[in-house]
Amino acid sequence: MKKLLIVLFALLFGTISFSRIAKSTEFIVDGYPIDVSPGDVVTVPPDDNPIDDPTNDVADDYTNDPIDDVPIDDVADDPITVYVDIKPGSCKNSINVKSQGVLAVAILGAEDFNVTDIDPLTVKLAGVAPLLSSIEDVSNPLNMENCEDYGVDGYDDLVLKFDTQEIVEVIDQAIEEDIEDGDEFELFLIGLLRGATGTEIEGKDTILIIKKGKKQ
């Protein structure tokens, strides 16, 4: 099975505070000068002071760390995983590579997730932006989990329409060989919630390639 993977990476950094000499200087210890090089960590008794102004010579590397200055309310939350249903009502999610139409994709709502919180303009499927969007109840997570038709679940879904040829082109460019009839690809969807932090959403679903008119 061939896969189209769009991987999102997030890096988290912590800070460790410590003091060290920022530039060459001299300390007077017991009446004798001692040279200290940049990067040396020193313990200075209260009576032992640098010859120069200590505020210029001893620095905390992390005092001006911009991470410390970020307001808590402006730090984005972890991505929210959502149910993505490509071609709601279809289990195999077949796509004809010659289709000139649109591909319907639903982001499913739930009791604890309101799809109206999603900004449709930020949503992308395999890097492709949607042409249209609407709010309607079209699917149920059980339809995807069991590949059976359980109907709708009573929660609004965000339905997006994508240009089928744009999706096919992305897949074609992502693999090193021709797309074949019966190939399956996993498409990843990303987007942002409305609001200052812009919390990310992410989900995925699989499609089945159909090449009508293929040579036998």
Overview of the structural elements:
It is globular, with a radius of gyration of 28 Å. The protein starts with 18 loop residues before the first strand and ends in a 6-residue tail after the last strand. The model is unreliable at 1-24 and 41-63 (pLDDT under 50). The longest helix has 11 residues, at 164-174. The protein is mainly β and 216 residues long. The strands form four sheets. Strands 5, 7, 9, 12 and 13 form a five-stranded mixed beta sheet that branches. It has a four-stranded antiparallel beta sheet with strand order 6-8-11-10. The chain folds into two domains: 21-66, no CATH class; 77-210, Immunoglobulin-like (Sandwich). The protein contains three helices and 13 strands.
Describe, in short, the structure shown:
With 216 residues, the chain is mainly β. The chain has three helices and 13 strands; from the N terminus they run βββαβββββββαβαββ.
